[in-house]
Amino acid sequence: MEQTTLAALSAFALVSSITPGPNNMMLMASGANFGLRRTVPHALGVGFGFTLMIILVGVGLMGLFDLFPVLGTVLKVVSVVYLLWLAWKIANAAAPDTKTGARSKPMTFFQAVLFQWVNPKAWSMALTAIALYAPDRNFGAVLLVAVVFGIINLPSTSLWAVMGQVLRGWLSSPARLRAFNWTMAALLVGSLALLI
């Protein structure tokens, strides 16, 4: 890959990874609700899961969407339903120190890996990255795209968890936390409108 193409890929990876979307909204909410340390598995799962997704899309899944366009529609429906459910969970998340016994838990590494498969922004990013930067789907080119995204994606998305952590003190008020969670849920739902 030429240097100019690599620079363009890196810029695309940065812009698409750091801008708001389902992963970033959820990481910010997790950082605010659970703190940075408890959000680390979620952030690592996003980075690993998305990098794996790019590889799998590049080596064959993209071909399935070419052969069976209805898969795109099915994916959108499943993604929308799942993201609406997650938005509901975020909106109604209790503070982690609540005395009611009902404690929310952050997303696990494995849940975050799996989440990539129903995240419309992740699909859009992976399909676009492969189409633009590994159009022949050569394994070496696919792997390079995945590595570039892997290097750029994790710190970019983790920044959102850090922002949530920074807001944590301000969100110590139950009313502010509730308003924040509802705002994050609304932004998560709003991100769907931009992606579908």
UniProtKB/TrEMBL annotation:
One of its GO terms (molecular function) is amino acid transmembrane transporter activity. Keywords: Cell membrane, Membrane, Transmembrane, Transmembrane helix. Coiled coil: none annotated. GO terms for biological process: cysteine export across plasma membrane. It is found in: Cell membrane. Its main location: membrane. The keyword Nucleotide-binding does not apply. GO terms for cellular component: plasma membrane. It is a multi-pass membrane protein. The chain crosses the membrane at residues 41-61, 68-88, 108-134, 141-163, 175-195. InterPro entries: LeuE-type. This is Lysine exporter protein LysE/YggA. It comes from Sphingopyxis fribergensis.
